[in-house]
Amino acid sequence: MPKRKPLSDYLEQIKSASDKQEKMKAKRLGEIALKKLPVLSYTPHEEYQLYRLLALVYYSLEKYSHSLELCHKAYLIALKKAFSVLDVACVFSLMGSNLVFIGNIPQALKRLQTARQYYDSTINALRANDKTTYCYMLIDLAYCYLHQNEIKKGEEIIENKLPAYLPCLPNNLGVIDYTHFKGEYFIIIKKYEQAKQCFTECVKMSNQIDFPRGRLCAEIHLATISLLESQIEPAIRRLKNIIKDAGCLRLNAIVCEASLLLSKCYNICGFPDKGRIIENRIKPILSKLDTVWLYEKTREFDRLYQQLQDKTKHKSKLIPQVLVQTLSDRYEKSADKYTLIGNSPIMQEVYQIIEKIAPTDLPVLIQGETGTGKELIANAIHTNSQRVNKAYLPFNCVVLPETLIESHLFGHTKGAFTGAHEDKKGYIELASGGTLFIDEIANMSLSMQQKLLRVLEEKLIYRVGASKSTPVDTRFVFASNQDVEQMVKNKFFREDLFYRINTIVVNLPPLRDRKDDIPLLVQHFLQKYGRPSPLISHLSPSVLALLSAYPWPGNVRELESEIRRICVLYPDTKTITEKMLSENIRCYIPVSVFSASKNSYLKNAVESLERNIINASIQQYNGNITYIAQHLGCTRAVLHKKIKRLKIDL
């Protein structure tokens, strides 16, 4: 029997290519090794190294979902074989970095916090490479804190922790990354002079190593600081140069970001026509950019423009219209448009996570209250995956008694138990090649969890009564209306199974946290149940205000039932009035109103209703004060006074 080629040969070649920045060569070598793995000789630690090295290569090539998938494999090996704390910390750190770029900041934060705990537990034993990884992990962690508006925690890392590890950064690129990030931090805390020093240093270092992208990104921030300091003309000159240079280098994302800022400058100066010309020019480029980039820039521009609102006489929408329209167009063209309804920021985050992780084979855990649409998300993940032409099967752990779950999941052989008259495949085997959605996983018994864990680890199933295993290739998506992590802490859910299914966690918001989506949802359900005409002919602002005030304990499912009931009971009506709503919605009074004093009860109730009606009208007429005033039957002056008194943001 011929001797197997050792995996170590490939590992040396991959590492050598990576060290020389030959990324595509390293990727090709890694993928060859991955394909040949069944015929190579290797130790568990060498297999771990292959997954980790190739994950780093994918990360450097901005293939974050593929990198995350390999991180998951490396993590499972490290966990199963009880590798060192540093091995696990390294993988957690890379997982966190990938999740940052995918846009799943809450999950990234959890991974990075865990990585920091591991590193800090062995801080005195860190080698040079470990210190480098630790330094990058701290930068990512601080970024997550700032993103979540936990400024003090980010400040502690930036000011106190990172400086000691900066000498560990391997090259000038690492120093540029840190200096750039520190400049962003200074902008957030409004220390503009320190920010300018950081970005000026980034420009200088980028020029020294011929790194034009780094220089142009720093230049954009310098232009932003000029804007914040009301120095519009210098900002315009700098942005024009950036657009010209980035266009020559075909750095489309930088062209778009600089153009959006330039458009804002023209609006501030009172030249909206020039701003529109700039925005129209970049429309074709924006449509090709990554969705995560679009969402992140939306968030950044929202924050920046809020800061600018108080500094300029010319008020305008906080987010560039061309950016909003690009995201809206992408949503309209999405295959999930008719199943996933909602365009609120919190749902946009869910969509971008789906877009990134759907093409992988990573297990996904969807958490959310009953009625939030967990099965719709699972179906969207399958629809956007490479398994779309294969089976998609849903399985609910609550529907069947415990004694039948094993047979239905794993299948059984003839004669395995009374009534087993023939061999039967289970859901896992039937979904092989496709996706199995297991709903209410938290209700599965601990013994069944152990059997499911074995499937996830070995990709093999044993039918009930069978002596031989059957290989399966099933992608698992799990859902729970409970916090599974909390159940692990309370010993109601297996910790080892949780570790294998929590790489990607999608937390679905309750409807009360995404009330901006209620008009879209109502329109969707009206069309679904036979009312195809536009929303405006069906829903008055007062009705929309009542729908928005109600907390929806049954979430989207309850809203759907309400609209369906109205369509059945009032089939000929053209306008939904307040009397058509269920009594519990029509008569709902917030708890906060009950807690108010008797004298302020009516005042608070009236103000709450006014606020909801005006907010609904603002959304309906896209912030146009003239149209809103006409619609509400008052003058612009009266409307402005109400908006100011009720503290409504336009």
Biggest sheet: strands side by side, in what order?
2-5-8-1-9
The gross shape turns out to be flat
Strand percentage, roughly? under 5%
State the major sheet.
Answer: 5 strands, parallel
Mean pLDDT figure: 86
Q: Count every helix, treating DSSP H or I runs of 4 or more residues as helices.
A: 31
Low-confidence stretches: 312-317, 593-598
Q: Which class best fits the helix and strand makeup?
A: mainly alpha
Q: What is the strand tally? A: 9
Distance between the termini: 76 Å
The residue fraction in helices comes out at 55-70%
**Which radius of gyration do the C-alpha atoms yield?**
28 Å
What report would you give on this structure?
This protein has helices at residues 7-19, 23-36, 44-60, 64-80, 85-102, 105-121, 128-147, 151-161, 172-188, 192-208, 212-228, 232-248, 252-268, 272-286, 291-309, 321-333, 345-357, 374-383, 402-410, 427-430, 446-458, 484-489, 495-501, 518-528, 541-549, 555-569, 583-586, 591-594, 598-620, 625-632, 636-645, and strands spanning 364-367, 392-396, 411-412, 424-425, 435-439, 460-461, 470-471, 475-480, 504-507. The protein has 31 helices and nine strands. 62% of the residues lie in helices and 5% in strands. The strands form three sheets. Strands 2-5-8-1-9 form a five-stranded parallel beta sheet. Strands 3-4 form a two-stranded antiparallel ribbon. Helix 5 (85-102) runs parallel beside helix 7 (128-147). The protein is flat. With 650 residues, the protein is mainly α.
